[in-house]
Amino acid sequence: MDINTEAPFQSARDGVADPAGKAAAALLLGVAGFQAALALAAPWGSAAYGGGNPGVLPHSLRTASAGACGVYLLLAAAAGTSFVPAALRRRVLYGTAGLMVVGTLMNLASPSLIERMIWTPVTAALVVLLWRSAKGEVIASEPAFWHRSSSRKSPQR
């Protein structure tokens, strides 16, 4: 019996996340950029917070956007790299995926058409990508000897 010595996904040991994690990180960076722009007075209020403040957001929501930007940057780092310990990374990714389900439902229910059209698909994609990345982390963090090679060789006699 031949035992494969490599995990089936790109391992967290080289500092690079799996493809789903990298894609999630890219989306999270985009969301962080949007939040940063809102915090810096971009006139995109109709695409955020239910669309109730068209134009530049009031100071309180700009402050909330600045905080959200920081959170999204941290989440992007957790999703796009694997410098975070595997068990913690897995929990963060699963937890964030769950929160993104709530975000998807909230965006879908938003009175703002632009928010429904832009952010519903983004948050739905994040649910899938974060979940897949967390699931891949479970497999990549298992000892390599648990994974058998798909091509079995018969013993030489």
Rg from Cα: 20 Å
Which percent bin holds the helix content? 55-70%
| Major sheet characteristics | none
Give the number of DSSP strands. Answer: 0
What number of domains? 1
Number of helices: 4
Poorly predicted parts: 1-13, 143-151
Oligomer: single chain
Elements, N to C (H/E): HHHH
What is the mean pLDDT? 85
Give the termini separation.
Answer: 13 Å
Strand content: under 5%
Structural class: mainly alpha
Apparent shape: globular
Could you outline the blueprint of secondary structure elements for this entry?
Layout: H1 19-39, H2 59-80, H3 86-108, H4 113-140
Core attributes:
disordered N terminus; about 160 residues; single chain
Architecture overview:
With 157 residues, the chain is mainly alpha-helical. The chain has one domain (17-145). The chain is built from four helices and no strands. The protein has helices at residues 19-39, 59-80, 86-108, 113-140. The chain starts with 18 loop residues before the first helix and ends in a 17-residue tail after the last helix.
Short structural summary:
This protein is an all-alpha fold.
